[in-house]
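Input (structure):
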């Protein structure tokens, strides 16, 4: 994902809050496993 503008990053929709969230560098290895946008949403499932 190096050199990609923010607007072109992959996004997903959080099933809890229904908000879109974008790819982050720290999620690089686990992007396929990421479901929730935040810890708060993950805890409130």
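Output (sequence):
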């Amino acid at each position: 994902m190096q050199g990609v503008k923010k607007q072109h990053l992959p996004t997903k929709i959080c099933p809890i809050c229904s908000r879109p969230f974008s790819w982050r560098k720290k999620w690089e290895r686990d992007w396929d496993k990421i479901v929730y946008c935040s810890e708060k949403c993950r805890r409130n499932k």
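Notes: Residues 6-43 form one domain. Strands lie at 11-13, 20-22.
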